[in-house]
């Protein structure tokens, strides 16, 4: 790891164009990080449902692959249903 | 340092930190789930069959992670297209 540490005097050297580029980069990174975190949570949930029993080999079989894809989609269906239901409760 | 090299240094540091955080989360989950699967009854040491189970489990968990990530991104794009997330 390179130990170049950045301090305030370095940051003051940034011109407007580079500041704008950095803001965009950070926004994109935040989104990527959110998706990765959510992927960790979903993999945990769907692994428990779709890969029961002993591990035989390091690859996923066809059933497990299909189950994982369905698991993600149904989890998000439930997420959307919950939001819709809650918003109808708030209006009703 | 000029503006360009400060920008590059900031980007490099952010990437290092977010990749480290991602790896840490993966290790935590693999540890949890593969311990559960491969060490049903903890003995006085990790046996060779338990150890090979852990290796396979790690590979399989990472394959599952990639599969879930793809399915998740596909669904987000679909929902964005449908306007589900618009306020």
TrEMBL record, chain A:
It is a peripheral membrane protein. Keywords: Chaperone, Disulfide bond, Membrane, Mitochondrion, Mitochondrion inner membrane, Protein transport, Translocation, Transport. GO terms for cellular component: mitochondrial inner membrane. Residues 24-87 form the Tim10-like domain. It is found in: Mitochondrion inner membrane. The gene is TIM8. The twin CX3C motif contains 4 conserved Cys residues that form 2 disulfide bonds in the mitochondrial intermembrane space. GO terms for biological process: protein transport. It holds the Pfam family zf-Tim10_DDP. This is Mitochondrial import inner membrane translocase subunit. Belongs to the small Tim family. Heterohexamer. It comes from Coniochaeta pulveracea. The keyword Transport applies.
From TrEMBL, chain B:
GO terms for cellular component: mitochondrial inner membrane; mitochondrial intermembrane space chaperone complex. Keywords: Chaperone, Disulfide bond, Membrane, Metal-binding, Mitochondrion, Mitochondrion inner membrane, Protein transport, Translocation, Transport, Zinc. Pfam families: zf-Tim10_DDP. It is found in: Mitochondrion inner membrane. The keyword Cell wall biogenesis/degradation does not apply. SUPFAM superfamilies: Tim10-like (SSF144122). It is a peripheral membrane protein. Its main location: mitochondrion. Residues 13-73 form the Tim10-like domain. GO terms for molecular function: metal ion binding. One of its GO terms (biological process) is protein insertion into mitochondrial inner membrane. InterPro entries: Tim10-like, Tim10-like_dom_sf. Heterohexamer; composed of 3 copies of TIM8 and 3 copies of TIM13, named soluble 70 kDa complex. Associates with the TIM22 complex, whose core is composed of TIM22 and TIM54. Interacts with the transmembrane regions of multi-pass transmembrane proteins in transit. Mitochondrial intermembrane chaperone that participates in the import and insertion of some multi-pass transmembrane proteins into the mitochondrial inner membrane. Also required for the transfer of beta-barrel precursors from the TOM complex to the sorting and assembly machinery (SAM complex) of the outer membrane. Acts as a chaperone-like protein that protects the hydrophobic precursors from aggregation and guide them through the mitochondrial intermembrane space. Belongs to the small Tim family. The twin CX3C motif contains 4 conserved Cys residues that form 2 disulfide bonds in the mitochondrial intermembrane space. This is Mitochondrial import inner membrane translocase subunit. It comes from Coniochaeta pulveracea. The gene is TIM13.
């Amino acid at each position: 790891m390179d130990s170049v540490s950045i301090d305030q005097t370095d940051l003051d050297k940034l011109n407007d164009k580079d500041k704008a580029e950095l803001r965009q980069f950070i926004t994109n990174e935040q989104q990527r990080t959110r998706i990765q975190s959510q992927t960790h949570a979903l993999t945990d949930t769907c692994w428990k449902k779709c890969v029961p029993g002993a591990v035989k080999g390091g690859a996923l079989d066809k059933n497990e692959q299909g189950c994982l894809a369905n698991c993600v989609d149904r989890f998000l269906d439930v997420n959307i249903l919950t939001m819709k239901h809650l918003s109808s409760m708030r209006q009703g | 340092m000029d503006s360009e090299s400060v920008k590059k240094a900031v980007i490099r540091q952010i990437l290092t930190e977010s990749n480290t955080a991602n790896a840490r989360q993966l290790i935590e989950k693999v540890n949890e789930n593969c311990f559960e699967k491969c060490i049903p009854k903890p003995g006085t040491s990790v046996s060779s069959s338990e150890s090979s189970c852990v290796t396979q489990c790690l590979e399989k968990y990472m394959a599952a992670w990639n599969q879930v990530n793809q399915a998740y991104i596909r669904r987000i794009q679909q929902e964005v297209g449908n306007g589900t997330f618009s306020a």
